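re: that chain from earlier
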Amino acid sequence: MFEAVESLIDEHAELEGQMADPAVHSDPRRARDLGRRYAELTAIIRAYRDWQHAREDLVAAQELHMDDEAADLERRVPELAERLERMLVPRDPADGKDVILEIKGGEGGDESALFAADLLRMYSRFAERHGWKVEVLDATETALGGYKSVTAAVKAKGTPEPGQAPYALLKFEGGVHRVQRVPVTESQGRIHTSAAGVLVLPEAEDVDVQINDNDLRIDVFRSSGPGGQSVNTTDSAVRITHLPTGIVVSCQNEKSQLQNKEQAMRILRSRMLDAAQAAADAEASDARRSQVRTVDRSERVRTYNFPENRISDHRTGFKSYNLDQVIDGALDDVIGSLVEADLAERLAALEDR
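^ sequence. v structure.
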């Protein structure tokens, strides 16, 4: 596998030459794509150089009978080799993208809606820890401050390291999340179980999906808040229906009809990209089936048990008793277990070839 690095070094040098061309930067899309690939290759080549240097240092230490240093390097060389091998595993093409995150309350009424708000807060805090920006595109709030549904964009700043972009990490969050706790609306102190559904989509760009304006039906209506209370007195909310696929997107957060339309189009493009990838790629379709679109507690991916301060991921068997920290954004260990499981599957698939 490491022999492939030589061709990547050639590609890296070629990209460096292209990025030095001022004409490239007149096309933001091309410059961004080149920058992402350049960053990915830079990290791989750096890891390759580290492995090479460690091997050379090991040989020198053995020849000079520097036993302590040789012993340290004998441990370090395999670690560096494993790190490089992991970086060379083919990635999901969408891993470098930003994210459209949709959270919907399910069974449980007000408690489910409050839990949906907790999940949005959790992902927002996680994003802050990674230096990402979260922008709420659309939300339907409840009287108690929860969300029947909320859609947000999660965007990285600059060019993230390989495997560190929003979609590369958050894609594992798709599915049904179950919560067990005493709701604020419970007067008898009984523990209730409810659920919220999470859907994670790579944010599509204009060039990723071609949408014909003639295929769209655009309806406008008056925005409304909790309990039917009017948010404003103009028909600023927008509903867009993509007629060929039947995909429907609504946005009402902004006061401007134009802004709501722009937000709805962002969501529509991402949903269409997801649908196209699922239809064209069986592997992608299998991965997306894990993102349960119906909020059924029996098809949960994770349970948040507040009385025991326990979080359990049912796909990897991960369990910890720091739910208070996780719900405050400390998701790295939970997501890390899913990243490791995904990597193990990819490595196994390569070995079976």
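The first helix runs from residue 5 to 19.
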